[in-house]
User: Which sequence fits this backbone?
């Protein structure tokens, strides 16, 4: 290995020079370039805290609301909206907590709820979503869902929940044992959005004939000669289907 007069090997000398240059640059930046206030880490932190503290405060946080609105708070805490803060919906309400004459807003319009609940592929799987145009478009969301405890309303199991009058009429009639869906094909969706998803109705005489024509194999039903009995008319122009009674 080549040696200089100093007796230090060449590679070590080069490495030493690089190191000294590095230290030099760091010191130069620290001493000359960085302005002095930025160098005092302590004071910089305090000034940042002061700066943030001097900002005006608008939000009160959800805890304080329960002092005066325990009912809404309790509902909200136990329901599906428990992770939403009160002020997400009611807007900044600090002023209100200091002077309850100043009322916060309450978002009653459909557009507000739709911000979070409109169908959007990028939302997490299972997040409850709807198409606002198709989802009960005529009514405000809060007429069916309590904003503090939103639930999906229970879907009625029985047709009689909405067609009570027809059910009552049928109970007292010879068609008592016939189920509604024997004569009406009804998709489940009809019970959720009856005006959008409709139920079928019999359209032809042949339908009644399946049980009532003399050809029919269904037992224990009064039979008629399908070809001549009331031939020019639909059966239900003479017999009310939900209470077929013949005048004797
Ligand atoms: C010091 C008691 C107090 C506190 C704390 C308080 N409120 Fe109220 N709040 C009231 C009073 C009083 C009313 C008026 C009630 C009325 O008019 O029936 C009211 C009314 C409201 C209303 C109804 C507005 C409307 O349009 O009818 C909302 C919403 C509301 N407060 C939200 C909040 C929220 C959110 C908080 C927490 C950030 C909060 N309040 C904290 C006393 C309070
Ligand atoms: C998802 C949005 C949402 C959240 C979260 C929410 N609210 Fe409401 N709040 C509403 C809407 C919408 C109304 C109006 C309801 C109405 O008119 O029937 C309302 C009404 C109110 C009222 C007036 C009650 C009345 O009968 O008029 C009070 C008080 C209230 N909220 C307090 C709170 C408090 C306290 C919290 C937090 C614990 C909270 N809200 C959280 C949407 C929300
Ligand atoms: C800031 C976003 C946000 C807003 C605004 C909002 N929600 Fe929600 N909503 C949620 C979250 C989060 C859930 C809970 C989702 C979960 O349980 O996975 C939820 C759940 C629901 C559910 C489903 C309950 C169930 O049975 O699964 C309904 C219904 C609902 N919200 C109705 C409303 C209505 C009505 C409004 C307007 C007053 C509204 N939401 C405003 C975020 C929001
Ligand atoms: C006429 C009553 C009615 C109105 C108005 C209404 N909903 Fe619903 N909502 C229902 C019923 C019933 C269900 C349960 C059946 C279903 O999934 O469609 C439901 C279900 C939901 C669900 C849960 C969907 C899921 O897949 O879990 C959300 C979220 C929801 N509604 C939000 C809203 C929002 C937001 C609005 C306003 C833009 C609104 N609803 C208006 C009756 C209503
Ligand atoms: C949530 C309430 C509700 C439930 C549950 C319900 N319906 Fe309906 N149904 C309605 C409403 C509302 C209408 C009227 C729709 C219209 O005027 O467009 C209707 C209309 C009908 C019609 C007449 C359709 C037409 O074109 O004239 C038939 C048939 C019917 N329903 C059968 C049924 C049967 C069968 C069931 C049970 C399997 C049932 N419905 C359950 C609300 C309901
Ligand atoms: C024997 C068959 C039959 C049964 C069972 C039956 N329906 Fe019908 N329903 C009909 C026929 C046929 C019509 C068509 C009447 C018309 O167009 O005038 C009809 C019409 C309707 C309508 C339209 C409005 C009206 O009063 O004309 C509704 C709603 C309806 N049915 C609901 C029901 C429900 C709910 C039940 C069960 C409680 C039921 N139906 C059981 C045959 C039946
Ligand atoms: C699934 C079989 C079935 C269908 C479909 C059916 N019915 Fe009936 N119908 C019956 C039964 C069962 C009786 C009662 C027999 C008894 O009382 O012993 C009956 C009785 C009657 C009676 C006699 C009432 C009386 O007082 O004796 C008339 C009229 C009648 N149905 C008309 C109709 C009409 C109109 C339709 C078509 C809309 C229809 N039925 C569809 C099974 C059916
Ligand atoms: C023009 C009116 C009219 C029409 C349309 C009509 N009926 Fe009748 N139906 C009557 C009259 C009136 C009676 C009672 C007198 C009789 O037995 O002929 C009756 C009796 C019946 C009976 C009872 C028979 C018995 O022996 O007890 C049945 C079942 C019946 N009809 C079913 C039907 C069916 C199914 C249709 C459609 C294919 C139909 N009707 C169409 C008027 C009509």
Assistant:
């Amino acid at each position: 290995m080549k040696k200089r007069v100093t007796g230090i090997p060449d590679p070590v000398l080069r490495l030493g020079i690089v190191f000294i240059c590095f230290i030099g640059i760091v010191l130069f930046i620290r001493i000359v370039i960085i302005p002095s206030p930025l160098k005092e880490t302590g004071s910089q932190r305090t000034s940042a805290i002061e700066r943030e503290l001097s900002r005006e405060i608008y939000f009160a946080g959800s805890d304080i609301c329960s002092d005066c609105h325990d009912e809404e708070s309790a509902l909200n805490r136990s329901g599906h909206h428990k992770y939403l803060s009160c002020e997400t919906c009611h807007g900044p309400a600090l002023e209100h907590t200091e002077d309850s004459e100043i009322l916060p807003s309450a978002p009653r319009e459909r557009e507000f709820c739709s911000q979070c609940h409109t169908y959007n592929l990028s939302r997490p799987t299972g997040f409850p979503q709807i198409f606002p145009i198709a989802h009960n478009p005529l009514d405000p969301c809060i007429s069916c869902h309590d904003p503090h405890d939103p639930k999906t309303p229970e879907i009625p199991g029985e047709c009689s929940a909405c067609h009570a009058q027809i059910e009552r009429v049928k109970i007292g009639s010879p068609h008592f044992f016939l189920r509604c869906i024997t004569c009406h094909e009804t998709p489940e969706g009809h019970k959720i959005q009856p005006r959008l998803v409709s139920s079928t109705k019999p359209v032809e005489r042949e339908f009644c004939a399946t049980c009532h024509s003399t050809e029919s194999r269904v037992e224990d039903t009064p039979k008629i000669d399908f070809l001549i009995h009331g031939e020019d008319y639909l059966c239900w122009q003479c017999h009310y289907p939900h209470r077929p009674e013949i005048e004797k």
Observations:
- The chain has a mean pLDDT of 90.
- The CA atoms of residues 118 and 131 lie 6 Å apart.
- Residues 110, 113-114, 117, 128, 130, 132, 135-136, 139, 141, 143-145, 152-153, 192 surround heme C (ligand 4) (CB under 6 Å).
- The chain has three domains: 10-53, 65-143, 178-238.
